[in-house]
Specification:
The complex is a heterodimer. By secondary structure, chain A is an alpha/beta fold. Helices cover 27% and strands 22% of the residues of chain A. Chain A folds into two domains: 3-150 and 292-362, FAD/NAD(P)-binding domain (3-Layer(bba) Sandwich); 154-289, FAD/NAD(P)-binding domain (3-Layer(bba) Sandwich), CATH 3.50.50.60. In chain B, 16% of the residues lie in helices and 45% in strands. The two termini of chain B are 20 Å apart. Chain B is of the alpha+beta class. Classes of the chains: A alpha/beta, B alpha+beta. The interface between A and B is large, with 51 and 47 residues. The complex binds flavin-adenine dinucleotide.
Chain lengths: 421, 260
């Protein structure tokens, strides 16, 4: 990806029909107060308008595919951030293996394709009126697509929200930057990383972080004990459990399964499990459970994820509503790999619902190349049929190899080019 | 563990869902149930389970039991611990049960180990009812409900707490009090911890939706689970006997994931 310039960022904002200057909004939707309901329409009444909330992998892919399949349909994307940072690279960024500029993209390509990109957070939904609410006004839709990804539910671990600085994690971009600083500054001691119960984004991610930081500190001569506390009874995903166990053991990483952290004691720097067990830390990275942004739950669409028909991505509750990627309650892995295919495939079904039948896309599958070190990665593949049923015969795993690292980076850069290039 | 079986995927490990991805070729029909055998305290029962199988463990006693179910995780120390009569951290423990029904299945070929301890002496029988994950899934797809696990629990006095396994959105927990006096609640983690650590009483954390009070016998509680929060059965009372069932409705099909 190209280096981002200020000009490019401004171009995205300028290219948008509505540049909703939202100020310094950086992160978590959990903090949003339900503001007074806006009464002003941001756009004129729609003909056929698809509004997509979120220009991450699934939302952006859906928007661009829809423009191709149904050029006469207006596509509006609401995105709260000016740029998007690729999720998989959070992991290697933590130890300085990736340059943020290479994996940060703008939404220029969407604008070029005729998508209206509005830089504003969605703060509420009025389903009965087909309206998405923003702090500046509302946007009406014929079809609504939720592609917001997930937010970390830090409040589910006692004292975590109030003590974030003791425990940065790579499951948000801001957290990733903080974790990198903390890892760089770490002078030795016990680093404890926790794994939430599934479903969470990128099931192998936590073990990758553990392996990479340990390798980083060893190379720097920092004496660190790395401990992984897992809510699950084995490393995730289950298909990789045996391989992970071996890798963690070989690297001397302490692995404690069935250790669900429910509390952080900031005074004694201890993590406490639901069974009352205690683990001391010098630096922690508690990865919280993850769920749909609050405004979606508040609209009555269910929580922690939005139930959909996995064959069409259509909501089980609302005819003209779709949910894609991480935010959907679906059989598909919460990954960028499937988010891309989900965005593409959903566009076919939305186009069909709008009277533009463009055939049937290939079903979703997932491939992932988790790092075990900067030089080697594992491999796992799973696939589903067009109804979203797993196809066991397609399960594949691969032991650590240097080729997997190459494949991973090639895939990620290719993905960013395909969606945002 | 407990969602230690880690919801979705892990769901799998816990029961039928995961295993669904690993169909046993050629095993189209599951054979009938094996005969129940009488088991002695602290005997270790090993049960290999192939990927795609869903074998239901059934234990019943005329006394009162603690049942420990352990699935091999690849950590040799854990298995040694289990064989030595201790409880590995990933094992599931069912305490003060008179009957227990629990499915054994996994994403890969595996082995389960079962051990019982008598809290009150009695004759204890154990059997395995073979089945396939696919059969269970087919029933859900047809719109039927499916009992995922079930126990008959006795609280002679004091308080019992135990995690409830295999909860995902779309499951329903049904508690039927048969006799005795007391309260049975299904508490979420935060409330459970407050009770456990003495910050609150069971009654103080009970809402009518999550608890049932029995003054003289029969009472029913039904909780529809719509999230991934863990839940714990908390029961306090005298001579309390109740059955709990974790029932999957077709709604769980929306939440089955491979989490790969
Ligand atoms: C540490 C880590 C490692 C990972 N590694 C991998 C990997 O190796 N392979 C892989 O395939 N996947 C990986 N992933 C997962 C992957 O990044 C996500 O699954 C994927 O990005 C999901 O895509 P999405 O479109 O659903 O949501 P996202 O990509 O999260 O995009 C959501 C978008 O919605 C916007 N948004 C949210 N709320 C609002 C709102 N209210 N209004 C307007 N906009 C909003 C956000 O700003 C964002 O741009 C990893 C993730 C992490 C955190």
């Amino acid at each position: 990806m190209d280096r981002l310039t200020r000009r490019q960022v401004l171009k995205v904002l300028g290219g948008a029909t509505v540049a909703a200057a939202t100020g310094g909004f950086t992160g978590q939707l959990l903090g949003w107060a339900t503001a007074q309901e806006p009464s002003r329409p941001l756009l004129p009444r729609p003909g056929r308008r698809v509004v997509i909330v979120g220009a991450g992998i699934s939302g952006a892919m859906c928007a661009r595919t829809l423009r191709k399949l149904a050029p006469d349909v207006e596509v509006v994307v609401l995105e709260r951030n000016p740029t998007y940072v690729s999720g998989p690279s959070h992991v290697d960024y933590v130890v300085g293996l990736e340059d943020a500029r290479k994996v940060t993209v703008t939404f220029d390509a969407l604008v070029r394709d005729g998508v209206r990109v509005i830089r504003s957070p969605a703060t509420g939904l009025r389903l009965q009126d087909n309206r998405v609410l923003t702090p500046q006004g509302f946007v009406e839709y014929s079809v609504l697509v939720l592609a917001t990804g997930l937010v970390p539910a830090e409040h589910e671990v006692r004292n975590l929200l109030e003590n974030r600085r003791l425990s940065p994690h790579a499951w948000t971009w801001a957290g990733t930057v903080e974790l990198r600083r903390a890892v760089e500054a770490f002078s030795g001691g016990t680093f404890v990383l926790t794994v939430p119960p599934p479903p969470y984004k990128c099931p192998p991610g936590p073990y990758e972080v553990a392996c990479l930081v340990q390798e980083y500190w060893r190379a720097k001569g920092v004496r660190a004990e790395v401990v992984v506390l897992d809510s699950n009874d084995r490393p995730q995903p289950p298909l990789l459990a045996d391989l992970w166990r071996r890798v963690l053991q070989e690297r001397g990483i302490t692995y404690k399964p069935s250790f669900k952290v429910v509390e952080l004691d900031p005074t004694s720097r201890v993590l406490i499990s639901d069974r009352g067990e205690r683990q001391r830390f010098d630096l922690a990275s508690v990865i919280p459970p993850q769920r749909a942004p609050l405004f979606i739950e508040e609209a009555g669409l269910g929580g922690p994820f939005v139930p959909i028909d996995p064959a069409t991505w259509r909501s089980r509750a609302q005819e003209n509503l779709y949910a894609l990627g991480d935010v959907a309650a679906s059989p598909y892995t919460k990954s960028a790999f499937t988010a891309f295919l989900q965005g593409r495939n959903a566009a076919y079904f939305i186009a069909r619902a709008l009277g533009r039948d463009r055939g049937e896309p290939d079903p979703v599958f997932n491939q992932c190349w988790p790092f075990v070190s900067s030089k080697e990665a594992l491999f796992v593949e799973v696939a589903w049929d067009k109804e979203g049923r797993p196809i066991p015969a397609r399960n594949r795993t691969g032991a650590p190899s240097a080729q997997h690292v190459k494949d991973r980076k090639q895939w990620e850069y290719g993905l960013l080019r395909a969606v945002y290039g | 563990m407990h969602r230690w079986a880690g919801v979705l995927l892990a769901l799998l490990m816990n029961g039928f869902l995961v295993g669904q991805m690993w169909v046993v070729r050629g095993a189209a029909l599951s054979p009938g149930p094996a005969e129940a055998v009488v088991v002695r305290e602290d005997e270790v029962h090993r049960r290999p389970v192939k990927a795609g199988e869903r074998t239901v463990l059934e234990v019943s006693t005329t006394g009162l039991l603690e049942v420990v179910v352990y699935e091999r995780t690849g950590d040799a120390r854990e298995l040694e611990e289990f064989r030595a009569g201790r409880v590995p951290r990933t094992a599931k423990v069912f305490s003060q049960v008179r009957e227990l029904s629990y499915p054994l299945s996994s994403v890969t070929d595996t082995e389960f180990y079962v051990r019982v301890r008598h809290l009150r002496p009695g004759e204890t029988r154990l059997r395995y009812v073979p089945g396939l994950v696919d059969e269970a899934m087919a029933r859900l797809r047809k719109g039927e409900n499916l009992v995922r696990n079930r126990g008959v629990v006795v609280v002679e006095g004091g308080r019992l707490t135990m995690p409830v396994y295999q909860l995902v959105p779309g499951t329903v927990v049904r508690v039927e009090v048969q006799s005795g006096r007391g309260v049975v609640g299904l508490l979420k983690t935060r409330d459970y911890l407050d009770v456990r650590d003495g910050r609150a009483t069971v009654a103080g954390r009970c809402t009518p939706q999550a608890c049932v009070e029995a003054s003289s016998g029969r009472a029913v509680l039904e909780v529809a689970v719509g999230d991934y929060d863990d839940r714990y059965l908390v029961a306090e009372g005298q001579g309390l006997v109740f059955t709990y069932r974790v029932v999957a409705t077709p709604e769980v099909l929306n939440h089955i994931s491979s989490c790969t």
